[in-house]
Amino acid sequence: MDKAFINFKYVDAIARAGSIRRAAEALSITPSALNRRLISVEDELEVQIFERLPRGVRLNAAGEILIQHIRTQLSDFERVKSQIADLSGFRRGEVTIACSQALLPFFLPEQIDRYRTEHPMIQVCVLPRDRSAAEAALADFTADLAIVFEPIKISDFHPIITVRQEIHAVMDRSHPLARKTKLRLRDCLEYPLALPTKAYGVRWLFDQATEKRNQSILPLLESDSFEFLRMAVRNTDLITLQIEVGLAANETKKSVISRPIVELDIASGLLHFGHLRGRVLSVAAAKFATQLAQVLSERYESV
Predict the structure, then answer these.
(1) 131 touches 152 (CB < 8 A)
(2) Which residues have C-beta within 8 Å of that of residue 105, sequence separation ≥ 6?
(3) Are 134 and 275 contained in the same domain?
(4) Residue 292 to residues 9, 103, 104, Cα–Cα distance (Å)
């Protein structure tokens, strides 16, 4: 592999680690050897690309320009490798997706299993990220794709599909509200709530709904883990919230069940699926994106 390309990978590793020592550990080389590589790049550019700090390094203005070029080049190289592998019918590659927690329990495991049945040589990496972290993962090429829930503020986000998501109340099967097929928000507010923290879209929609009712609601339990909240409502009168894609397809034998809240009381939200604007996806990522977009369009209302 070209020496300059290898140096690019080393610079990228240092930028991600924020430290020459930590990057060297990840690359299985000595810090002195990695530092010589860095100096070689800076000598060629005739400018420093990192600020040397007491406990690490940080990209300066020149480094920020260079790192965008480096990550574009590395991404393009992965795409080319994927295309070459496709020519021989021996498809390899890697797909990295940053996503909201709601996708983790059911939707993505199901879709990854389906994808890898057809493409067993593809490696899939899933990064649980909230909206701002998902944006950062796309921008620095850590992730190829992102699926994030309301509200989205990603200026360089290229949407593949956006679908509506109804808000559901999640509770123990023995909960008094479990007898109803659809709930009003006032029903839920009669019971103690276990809610995600304010960083999450479901909480944002809930807060909007209660503000319209001139109510200030303090949850009994609060967490940034949706899996914890789902487990916490078991054998209690607690209620938590989730979007459709985060629910089990078959709740018949589940101890925890869900009931939709009427949209008049709490608005449905939007689930956004896409990638960084201007980025050309690898064959592996593009095929996975096509599969996910098709399933989302079949299951939910597109916007």
Answers:
(1) yes
(2) 227, 230, 246, 248
(3) yes
(4) 30, 11, 14
Instruction: Find all residues with CB under 8 Å of 255, minimum gap 6, and list them.
Output: 172, 173, 234, 235
85 domain-assigned: no
Please check whether residues 147 and 276 belong to one and the same domain: yes
Quote the number of domains for the chain.
3
Mean pLDDT, residues 7-31 taken together: 89
Alpha-carbon distance of 272 to 270, in angstroms, equals 6
Does residue 183 lie in a domain region?
yes
Q: Is residue 111 situated within a structural domain?
A: yes
Let me know whether 180 and 251 are in one domain: yes
Which segment of 65-79, 94-108, 113-127, 156-170 scores lowest on mean pLDDT? 65-79
Q: Are residue 201 and residue 257 in the same domain, yes or no?
A: yes
* Within a domain: 72: no
**In CATH, what number is assigned to the domain containing residue 18?**
1.10.10.10
Give the strand pairing for 157-165 and 269-276: antiparallel
Q: Which two tokens stand for residue 299?
A: 């299951």
Structural domain containing residue 17? 3-67
In this structure, the answer to whether residues 263 and 172 fall within a common structural domain is yes
Q: What is the DSSP track for 89-134?
A: T---EEEEEEE-GGGTTTHHHHHHHHHHHH-TTEEEEEEE--HHHH
Q: Which residues contact 166 (CB under 8 A, 6 or more apart)?
A: 243, 244, 260, 261, 263, 268
Residue type, 284: A
Question: How does the average pLDDT of the chain come out, rounded?
Answer: 89
Which run of H or E residues covers position 60? none
* Cβ density class 224-245: b for 16+ within 10 Å, e for less: eebeebbebbeebebbbbbbbb
What digits encode the pLDDT tens for the residues 52-105? 888 889 999 988 888 888 888 887 787 777 667 665 555 668 899 999 999 999
